[in-house]
């Protein structure tokens, strides 16, 4: 089993009921809390609302490789590298996206760019 399979296995299945807090699953953190250059794997999107659907339409899906490229000078919005595509989202939106941070020792998703 490779690193990605291990991480995705720890992420909640989209059909499973879940709490709003990241505390329900250790190791999950909001995307907004990640520093610049941090590689992570998307685990959970907001459900049953327009934001979750809009993010999914842009390619945000469980298992996708993400990296925070940079933040605007006042911290909002964030520029995200989503498997090679650069997307800007508001910090409030990124707060609702839960990710698993990958170790910074070269264990990155195969689709992630440096």
TrEMBL record:
Pfam families under this entry? FeoA
Superkingdom of this entry's organism?
A: Bacteria
Residue span(s) of domain Ferrous iron transporter FeoA-like: 29-101
Q: Which UniProt keywords apply?
A: Iron
According to the UniProt entry, its GO molecular function terms are: transition metal ion binding
**Record has Iron as a keyword:** yes
Entries under InterPro entries matching the protein:
Fe-transptr_FeoA-like, FeoA, FeoA_core_dom, Transcriptional_repressor_C
Record keyword Cytoplasm present: no
Record PANTHER family: FE(2+) TRANSPORT PROTEIN A
- UniProt-recorded name of the protein: Fe2+ transport system protein FeoA
Q: Which organism is it from?
A: Humidesulfovibrio mexicanus
Q: What is the lineage of its organism?
A: Bacteria, Pseudomonadati, Thermodesulfobacteriota, Desulfovibrionia, Desulfovibrionales
């Amino acid at each position: 089993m490779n690193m990605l399979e291990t991480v995705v296995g720890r992420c909640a299945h989209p059909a499973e009921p879940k709490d709003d807090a990241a505390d329900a699953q250790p190791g999950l953190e909001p995307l907004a809390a990640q520093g610049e250059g941090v590689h992570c794997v998307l685990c959970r999107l907001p459900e049953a609302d327009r934001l979750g659907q809009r993010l999914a339409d842009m390619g945000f899906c469980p298992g996708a490789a993400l990296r925070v490229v940079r933040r605007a000078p006042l911290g909002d919005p964030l520029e995200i590298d989503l498997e090679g595509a650069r997307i800007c989202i508001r910090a409030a939106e990124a707060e609702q996206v839960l990710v698993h941070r990958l170790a910074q020792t070269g264990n990155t998703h195969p689709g992630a760019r440096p």
